[in-house]
Write a structure and sequence with these properties.
Chain B: Its main location: mitochondrion. Chain B: One of its GO terms (cellular component) is mitochondrial inner membrane. Chain B: It is a single-pass membrane protein. Chain B: Component of the cytochrome c oxidase, the last enzyme in the mitochondrial electron transport chain which drives oxidative phosphorylation. The complex is a heterodimer of chains A (138) and B (173). Chain A has one domain: Cytochrome c oxidase, subunit Va/VI (Serine Threonine Protein Phosphatase 5, Tetratricopeptide repeat), CATH 1.25.40.40. Chain A is mainly α. Chain A starts with a helix and ends in a 5-residue tail after the last helix. Chain B has 173 residues and is mainly alpha-helical. Chain B folds into 4 domains: 29 residues, no CATH class; 38 residues, no CATH class; 30 residues; 38 residues, no CATH class. Helix content of chain B is 49%, strand content 2%. Chain B contains 7 helices and 2 strands, in the order αααααααββ. Chain B has a two-stranded antiparallel ribbon. The longest helix of chain B is centred in the C-terminal third of the chain and has 26 residues. The relative contact order of chain B is 0.05. Classes of the chains: A mainly alpha (138), B mainly alpha (173). At the A-B interface, α3, α5 and α7 of A face α4 and α5 of B.
């Protein structure tokens, strides 16, 4: 048996706090700019194209690139292979090809595609593939 | 104190190459080669870090140095064997060699079964020689009387014990 006056007072209180519902359209995602694939590729190509790249930077770059959840584009790999050539490091160049095959995992069509795309570069620089050297199997 | 030091030296010269890692122990064994300096970069075979901090072979022989010199020229002039040798100087294992498994699991599983079996023998011996007699309430006679009493008491008449006894025919259903 609450009096009508009390009820009206309560209603007015709640009505005064009316407009505090959250806007439904805004969601809590980050507003950071997402890098496109092309930007990512060109950033890495530029990294390996540095003329005075030293051996540490090459190793660091490649280890980082292999750490990502992707297989690098042939153009990045070509840039890295040329960096190996500038540093007189054939072993690293062959390792790059091995690492690409390892990164592809179950997707067995990636590695032949990459080798095909890198064909001119490999021939020009004289880099043998792991298959040619016989280290593709145990 | 003296006795323990003598013991350490005796063990070092006897069975173990190093017992303690203190510099005192190392000084006592100047011929010991494989001292691992964990503060310096090390080589490792890891598929997730394909380019380790240092090459596998650091101290190159004269022949290997010549090969490295040839590497500075055009790579088209290297033979396959030379390229392979250059690769193996920097990397100990190739990817397939790194990723291949071993048969160690068979040894582990075999060891587990062996020791389980040995434990079973011990448990069996214990059952025979350590445990005393079972209580008299497990004897055939007692169990018969017990069962009859349970049937008379109507133990678990709905879904359990007495439900399985046919009271008209006086036998198990």
């Amino acid at each position: 048996m609450i009096s009508a006056a009390v009820l009206r007072a309560v209603a007015s209180l709640t009505r005064a706090r009316a407009a505090h519902t959250a806007p439904l359209a805004v969601r809590c995602f980050s507003h950071a700019k997402v890098e496109t694939d092309e930007e990512f590729d060109s950033r890495w190509v530029t990294y390996f194209s540095k003329p005075d790249l030293d051996a540490w930077e090459l190793r660091k770059g490649m280890n980082t690139l292999i750490g990502y959840d992707l297989v690098p584009e042939p153009k990045i790999l070509a840039s890295a292979l040329r960096a190996c050539r500038r540093l007189d490091d054939l072993a690293s160049a062959i390792r790059i090809l091995e690492a690409v095959k390892d990164k592809s995992g179950p997707h067995q069509e990636i590695y032949p595609y990459v080798i095909q795309e890198l064909g001119p570069t490999l021939q020009e620089l004289g880099i043998s593939t792991p298959e040619e050297l016989g280290i593709h199997t145990v | 104190m003296l006795a323990s030091r003598a013991l350490v030296r005796g063990l070092q010269s006897g069975f173990w190459r190093r017992v303690s890692t203190s510099s005192g122990a190392r000084a006592a064994h100047p011929h010991d080669v494989d001292v691992l300096d964990c503060s310096a970069p090390q080589y490792n075979n890891r598929p997730d870090t394909p380019w380790p901090d240092v090459p596998f072979v650091r101290n190159l022989s004269a022949e290997q140095k010549k090969l490295k010199e040839k590497e500075k020229g055009p790579w088209t002039q290297l033979t396959k064997e030379e390229k392979l040798a250059i690769y193996r100087l920097t990397h100990e294992l190739s990817f397939p060699e790194m990723n291949k498994g071993s048969k160690e699991w068979m040894t582990v599983l075999g060891g587990i079964f062996y020791f389980l079996g040995f434990t079973a023998l011990l448990v069996w011996w214990q059952r025979v020689y350590v445990y005393g007699d079972v209580p008299h309430t497990f004897s055939q006679e007692w169990v018969e009387k017990q069962t009859q009493m349970m049937i008379d008491m109507r133990v678990n008449p709905v879904q359990g014990f007495s439900n399985k006894w046919d009271y008209e025919k006086k036998q198990w259903k």
